[in-house]
Design brief:
The chain is an alpha/beta fold. The strands form 2 sheets. The protein has a 6-stranded parallel β-sheet, with helices on both faces. A two-stranded parallel ribbon has the order 1-2. The longest helix is centred in the C-terminal third of the chain and has 31 residues. The protein is globular, with a radius of gyration of 24 Å.
Length: 392
């Protein structure tokens, strides 16, 4: 049993040989892409006679190209899929109760959002002068990123509007992100993002902060932060408080996308006596591997009863005592949503609660990940059926 990086480094340094290995099991096989250690290990192993590879993953990918890349890199010849609907799997599964809570934004937040959206819309209209014909209300972040690439290519052609196009598309990406985090994250997280813009020297960031709309929204957010929290945080605290009233020995994990939001939630949770929260974050955010292990052990020993984590908690975390997994925000990736879901109901029944800000990216991301999961399963079933037909 080993981490892939350890085996890969030992192979590179000729410290070990795979000649006598008759089977390698690659867990979380969806990582077998690009320069990940699994790719080199598999490449080394395929030169060994009578080698066998078993690859396991709950989420190989939502398109055939990604799945084929994994199969190619691992030299996979046969694909099998099992879901929670298969009889041979059902007997080993614990019940998961999934619920969705759509949370309306309150009036103060909606007023601030309207100012930011007015500015964003006014800037979207400028795209028409740059030849954009797509309806403005349908332009998304991918469109803006594509525009950036297009205008950068035009720099080489000395197109005079290219510089303006790059700056405008960058500005729109930033304001779109500002809207998203205010809708789905928290007031403090939004203020942190605005402070980040203040530290930037780009024309786009300066234009945003010089806008009367943004200046007014910024000052109102500062005032609001003194007395209010985001409605999702209030709902989250209520859900957890109620759970501990029903079962004081409950264990809860909360998934959050943004580090700043974790800090904001942590402050709110610490104000409730029954809640003993702790954060689990990556090494870049401030916890080394030893500290991460210590956090998990303390959580299992009941020193803490609520575990707040970023994406680091989505894989490789096995805590059998978890009662509830709460998704504070949605992720567009089917892989990440599946991995999050797998943290709960491992050895006993559990609940999964999705918090979604009404009319926000939370809702769109949730349905996108669901659609991608269904697509992934269809691809795998088709691959499995074709292999069975070929074998007949």
């Amino acid at each position: 049993f080993s981490t892939p990086q350890c085996i890969n480094n030992d192979l590179k340094n000729n410290l070990i040989s795979l000649e006598d290995v008759i089977l390698i099991v690659f867990d979380e096989a969806h990582h077998t892409v690009q320069n990940y250690a699994y790719v080199n290990i598999s490449k080394n192993y395929q030169n060994i006679p009578h080698h066998h590879i078993l690859a396991l993953t709950a989420s190989p990918g939502n398109n055939k190209e990604k799945i084929n890349e994994i199969c190619k890199n691992l030299n996979i010849e046969k694909v099998e899929i099992r879901t929670d609907q298969d009889e041979e799997v059902k007997q080993y599964l614990q019940e998961k109760h999934v619920s969705w809570l759509t949370i309306p934004l309150d009036e103060p937040l909606l007023n601030i959002l309207s100012k930011i959206k007015q500015y964003h819309t006014s800037k979207l209209k400028e795209l028409k002068h740059l030849g954009v014909t797509k309806p403005l209300n349908l332009i998304n972040k991918k469109d803006l990123l594509d525009l950036q690439i297009k205008f950068r290519l035009q720099l080489n052609q000395k197109n005079p509007i290219a510089f303006h196009g790059i700056s405008l598309s960058t500005l729109l990406i930033k304001t779109s992100h500002l809207i998203d985090i205010l809708e789905t994250q928290g007031i403090i997280t939004t203020l942190s993002y605005l402070k980040k813009l203040e530290s930037e020297t780009s024309k786009a960031s300066k234009s945003i902060l010089n806008s009367p709309y943004i200046k007014l929204a910024y000052s109102q957010l500062i005032e609001l932060s003194k007395t209010n929290t985001h409605p999702k945080i209030s709902s989250l605290v209520s859900i957890i408080t109620k759970q501990f009233e029903e079962n004081k020995n409950s264990k809860i994990i909360i998934f959050v996308n943004f580090r700043d939001t974790i800090d904001e939630i942590l402050i709110a949770l610490k104000n409730v006596s029954s809640i003993k929260p702790v954060i689990l974050i990556g090494q870049k955010s401030g916890l080394n591997q030893k500290q991460q292990v210590g956090v998990i052990k303390d959580f299992e020993r009941n020193i803490y009863n609520v575990l707040l984590c970023t994406s680091i908690g989505e894989e490789g975390l096995s805590i059998g005592t978890l009662d509830i997994a709460i998704f504070y925000d949605a992720v567009p990736s089917a892989i990440r949503r599946i991995q999050r879901t797998g943290r709960v109901a491992r050895i006993k029944p559990g609940k999964i609660i999705h918090l979604m800000a009404a009319g926000s990216k939370d809702v769109a991301y949730y349905w996108k990940s669901k659609h991608d999961e269904a697509k992934m399963k269809n691809i795998l079933y088709n691959m499995q059926d074709k292999e069975k037909q070929s074998a007949l």
